[in-house]
Design a protein that fits this description.
- The protein is an alpha/beta fold and 369 residues long.
- Helices cover 35% and strands 21% of the residues.
- It is built from ten helices and ten strands.
- The strands form three sheets. It has a six-stranded mixed β-sheet with strand order 7-6-5-8-9-10, sandwiched between helices.
- It is flat and about 95 Å long.
Length: 369
Amino acid sequence: MRIRQDHSRFRQIVRGKVRQNLRQYISSGELIGKQGKDRVSIPVPQIDIPRFRFNSQDGGGVGQGEGEPGDSLGPGDQEPGEGEAGEGEGEKALEVDVTLDELAQILGEELQLPRIEPRGEKAVVTERDKYTGIRPVGPNSLRNFKRTYKAALKRSIAMGQYNAKNPVILPIKDDMRYRSWSTVKSPQSNAVVIYMMDVSGSMGDEQKEIVRIESFWINTWLKSQYEGIETRYIVHDATAREVDEHTFFHTRESGGTMISSAYRLAAQILDADYPSADWNIYPFHFSDGDNWSVDDTRACVQLLKDVLIPSSNQFSYGQVESPYGSGQFIKDLKDNFKVGDDECALVCSEIKNKDAIVGSIKEFLGTGR
């Protein structure tokens, strides 16, 4: 019991340290490479554990002998930089495993994120067989040997056939017991996240790293809000294609930019695989704001109005600042939509650098949609 209490207290200390340094973790992106299936390893700043420090035996007790207030009680205290070089290892940073659920909870507390309310009846009903009882008939594959033996034993004792010296029990047909089942319908709130990113020449490695960090934290939060979540990835320059996660963050093209190609492909994916009546839909698009033409921007606006925004819980556009991008697209979106209005399901965020990631996450996830 004491060990359990100590462990719980240690976890609380770790949690406080993680929350205290969360913004630093987000901006630096140092958690991304340390993630496992359902947990991450976090480098926690040094946690001082109280311990006794003993003086040499001939030094007298505390408060005895000569000395001044503030004098060291042990030989181990010295100023930084003093002392000789040695061969021993120095202190290493303490790494603590934290589950993604814990991380999402800390993120929500630190950024004061509201819990997401699934829009309408966004639930996928799944059916599964659940064993609920015992019955006297059924297939041999579902025979319950323990219950069958107990029934045979009771019958033998009741009929006076049981011999304690030779306890052989032979079940008959009436003794057989089988597991019974029923089909249970279980509603699950499911969500799909579609990430779209401009991979044209103006989007450099720094811009892609920002997108990679931000998408990790977005996914962490959304996974804590839904029982099931699927993720799809689209890259585009003048054309769009669906790719896997690794390709999404590591590919680079040199062509121009036609954003409408990504929006059309996203609309096709939603139409084929994710009907809006059954899914909570979250498209995220990241670019540096360049687009090929005014006509293509007009096509994007039309796709957003007619298809993507009506189908989605929220459509999020993140504009990553680049020295080669014009930054015009976010202005066009704000001219055509009431961005910032509570009724508008389009959220736009300008991400100037890694330090702006925290604010961008709050802009995207702070609506509670």
